Structures are given as structure tokens and as C-alpha cells.
């Protein structure tokens, strides 16, 4: 949206989509259009029209004036003697009254007045605008654009956009996992198509969704979750196809143990025929759920996984002890936690164990920069951390068996040649020693 914020919307045919103070539009005008284009709301019926991307600041409106033209007209990025020392920023600088500004905004929402005209009127009515520095002029115009523009840009729901949205809006939902940490996790765990992965996810489905997106429906993903039913909420925002989610096999954490039975009374055809319509429907749902649990548990107990990813509220080493038996040798194990202290104990346990190799605790750093002409610098407000990752390799310790070592003929020739090359003095010492033993 013009304010820079994002909003999650499920488009349904023949509905009005409300963007708050930026107006409303008809969903039918957007369905079927490509992602990435910027649209402007025009008219009272919610019509929209495509415009040049808002980041370029050069969209030409019907009045022939654009925000880019305003910046080019009022802003020249060159050295100037102007400063903001004597400017008092208050409401008296604006000649337009509050009621007039609200009237202009209402006309803009109804499509009677273009956004470019409103911004131009606001600039022309500012008494101290000419006294501002060039950077202050640009910031003023940008603020008015965010307030009066009625443009928006549909963005494809990818794991990057979904992660950025929840990290800014509700970071606790995804356990404060930043996008750079998530990318490192996928790289360390070697997530790829045709892989067989074992995941313990308590990030509302962020890790599961990212693995499904990268695997593309090829492979197998067994997801361990707490409780009887999984809460992979982010899956419904990803807009993944049915083929991409078909490789997901959720298993409750209470059903990991193979000794725990999952009994279900299967009725015969005669018994089913005696049930009522509602009872038959209920029995069919329960039987389908039982068959799904059996199939998912079998996928887990078959083992031979290519990697293990853990993000759990339980102590990591307790989870790894239960699941590492299903992971193949020389396969990665990656653990995520927002608290470093939780992973320190697990790393110490891994380094003492003979089942793991190269246990490392890492933290990634990411800085966002403002990139503008003559004004490139880091943003003032940034996240201080995006979580920690503990990575290691699963090692299967095999005892050394000398009988498995095959000696070639070359090895025998080498030993015989070494005996022949022995010195005569050495041979005489051996003969004397044998004679003494005979006596």
C-alpha cells in the first residue's frame, strides 16, 4: 500500500476489497491480472487502472502531472544554501484549512480529483516550502503521497513476502525467525527437490511452508507437531497447489513411539449398512483420518531421512535423541531457537557425543539500507536479531572389522621386496639369535 505496509487479502469474485483510507476496489477487476504491477483506484464503483510502478515515482495521471514531475520541479539534488533552521513546522504554514484538506481527500476517494492534483495543491499552499532544503522537500512530498495516493501493488505470496509480513506484524507467531535466518536454515539442511526430510515445526508452519515451496511437490516431508492436530497456519497463505502439499505427512509428537497402538474398529459392510446416514458419514471421516495417520506414521518409521530440522518448545536434545534414529548417516541436523542459551547446552551435548560431527552455533546479521540519490545510509530502526542456528552432521559409528580389509597382491609383493632388501648384517643377527634359541 502507499504507506509501505502490507495487507493479506483473499480475493473472491464479485466482492469489494477495502484498503481503509486508501479506498476500495472491485475484486473482479484484479482477478486474472499479473502480480507486480501497480494499480490506481479510480471512480466510485471501485474501478482500477494499471500505472507505472510506484517505486519509480513517474506515473502520469489524467491531469498530466505526476509525483515524479513534482519532485523534478520542486527538488533539485544539488548543493544549496537553504536550511531548516528558521522554519517552524506547524499548521499555520499550510494555507488550506483542515476542512478543505478533508474535502480534497474525499474527492480523491470518489475519483473526482486526481492524487497528483491534491499533492500539487498542498505544495503550492505551503508558505515555507521554498525555504526547505532539497531533502526536506522530498520528504514532505513523500509524506503527502503516502497519505493521498490510492495506488497498491499486488505481491505474490511467497515465503519471502509472508515471512517479512509476519516478522513486522507478529514476530512471535513465527518465533522471531528472520528471512536471512530462514534462508540459512534451508541451505544448511540441504532442502531440495526429491529429498526426504523430517521436520519438527512450532513456527506456525513457516519452516514446513518453506520446505514445500523449495521441494516443489517432489520428495517426502514428514512434519512432527505438538498436539493431536497440526497448526501449520501459514500454509493457507502460501497459495500452494495440491500437488505441492501432497508430499506433507503430519505426525503428532505423541505418536512417534512405535509401541503406541493406533487402534480403529473397522466395520464390515453389513455393519455399515445398518448405520444411519449421519453415522455413515461420521464413520467415513474417522476411517479416512485413521488411514491418513497410519500412512504418515509408516513414512516416519521407514526412516532413511536426508535431514532433520528442529524448532520446538521442548529441549532440543530430547527431540533429537528420539528422532536421530530415523536419519541416515552423513546427513545434516539443523536446530533453530531465538535464544542462544537453549542451543549452547545442545551444542555441548553434540560435541561430547560420537553421533555428531562439526556442531556449530551461528547467527546471521542483516542490515537494511535506504538507497536514494545522495542519501544512502542504514535504516534507523532495524531488528537486533533473527535467531540462532545449530548445525551438525549425523554420524553412524561403526566398529573397525579387520576381516573386511582386503589385501591385494601388490601389498604382498611389497612386503617380500622389503625382506629381500634387508641388510646382510641384519640377516646375520637373525641367524645368531635363532642359533642361541636352539642351544
TrEMBL record:
Gene3D superfamilies: Vaccinia Virus protein VP39. Pfam families: Gcd10p (PF04189). GO terms for biological process: tRNA methylation. One of its GO terms (cellular component) is nucleus. Residues 407-416 have a biased composition (Basic and acidic residues). Residues 405-439 are annotated as: Disordered. It is found in: Nucleus. Its main location: nucleus. Keywords: Nucleus, tRNA processing. It comes from the Eukaryota. InterPro entries: SAM-dependent_MTases_sf, TRM6. Belongs to the TRM6/GCD10 family. PANTHER family: TRANSLATION INITIATION FACTOR EIF3-RELATED, TRNA (ADENINE(58)-N(1))-METHYLTRANSFERASE NON-CATALYTIC SUBUNIT TRM6. This is tRNA (adenine(58)-N(1))-methyltransferase non-catalytic subunit TRM6. It comes from Parasitella parasitica. The lineage of its organism: Eukaryota, Fungi, Fungi incertae sedis, Mucoromycota, Mucoromycotina.
Amino acid at each position: 500500500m502507499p504507506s509501505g505496509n502490507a495487507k493479506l487479502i483473499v480475493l473472491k469474485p464479485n466482492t469489494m476489497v477495502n484498503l481503509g483510507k486508501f479506498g476500495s476496489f472491485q475484486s473482479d477487476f484484479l482477478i486474472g491480472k499479473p502480480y507486480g504491477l501497480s494499480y490506481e483506484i479510480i471512480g466510485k464503483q471501485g474501478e482500477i487502472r494499471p500505472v507505472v510502478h510506484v517505486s519509480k515515482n513517474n506515473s502520469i495521471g489524467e491531469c498530466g502531472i505526476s509525483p515524479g514531475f513534482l519532485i523534478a520541479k520542486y527538488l533539485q539534488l544539488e548543493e544549496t544554501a537553504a536550511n531548516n533552521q528558521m522554519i517552524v513546522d506547524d499548521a499555520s504554514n499550510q494555507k488550506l484549512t483542515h476542512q478543505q484538506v478533508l474535502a480534497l481527500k474525499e474527492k480523491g476517494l470518489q475519483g473526482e480529483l486526481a492524487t497528483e492534483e491534491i499533492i500539487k495543491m498542498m505544495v503550492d499552499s505551503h508558505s515555507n516550502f521554498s525555504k526547505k532544503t532539497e531533502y526536506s522537500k522530498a520528504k514532505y512530498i513523500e509524506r503527502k503521497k503516502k497519505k493521498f495516493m490510492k495506488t497498491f501493488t499486488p505481491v505474490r505470496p511467497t515465503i519471502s513476502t509472508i515471512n517479512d509480513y509476519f516478522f513486522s506484524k507478529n514476530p512471535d507467531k513465527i518465533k522471531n525467525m528472520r528471512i536471512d535466518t530462514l534462508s540459512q536454515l534451508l541451505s544448511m539442511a540441504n532442502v531440495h527437490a526429491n529429498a526426504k526430510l523430517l521436520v519438527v515445526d512450532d513456527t506456525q508452519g513457516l519452516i514446513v511452508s518453506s520446505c514445500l515451496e523449495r521441494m516443489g511437490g517432489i520428495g517426502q516431508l514428514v512434519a512432527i507437531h505438538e498436539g493431536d492436530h497440526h497448526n501449520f497456519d501459514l500454509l493457507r497463505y502460501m497459495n500452494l497447489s495440491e500437488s505441492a502439499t501432497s508430499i506433507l505427512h503430519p505426525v503428532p509428537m505423541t505418536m512417534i513411539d512405535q509401541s503406541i497402538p493406533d487402534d480403529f474398529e473397522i466395520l464390515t459392510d453389513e455393519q455399515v449398512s445398518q448405520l444411519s446416514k449421519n453415522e455413515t458419514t461420521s464413520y467415513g471421516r474417522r476411517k479416512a483420518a485413521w488411514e491418513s495417520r497410519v500412512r504418515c506414521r509408516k513414512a516416519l518409521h521407514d526412516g532413511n531421512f536426508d535431514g532433520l530440522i528442529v524448532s520446538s518448545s521442548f529441549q532440543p536434545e530430547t527431540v533429537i535423541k528420539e528422532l536421530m534414529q530415523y536419519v541416515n548417516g552423513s546427513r545434516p541436523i539443523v536446530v533453530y531457537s531465538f535464544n542462544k542459551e537453549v542451543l549452547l547446552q545442545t551444542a555441548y551435548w553434540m560435541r561430547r557425543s560420537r553421533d555428531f560431527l562439526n556442531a556449530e552455533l551461528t547467527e546471521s546479521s542483516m542490515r537494511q539500507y535506504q538507497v536514494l540519490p545522495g542519501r544512502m545510509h542504514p535504516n534507523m530502526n532495524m531488528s537486533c536479531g533473527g535467531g540462532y542456528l545449530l548445525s551438525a552432521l549425523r554420524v553412524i559409528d561403526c566398529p573397525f572389522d579387520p576381516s573386511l580389509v582386503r589385501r591385494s597382491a601388490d601389498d604382498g609383493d611389497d612386503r617380500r621386496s622389503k625382506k629381500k632388501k634387508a641388510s646382510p648384517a641384519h640377516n646375520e643377527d637373525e641367524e645368531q639369535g635363532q642359533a642361541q634359541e636352539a642351544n
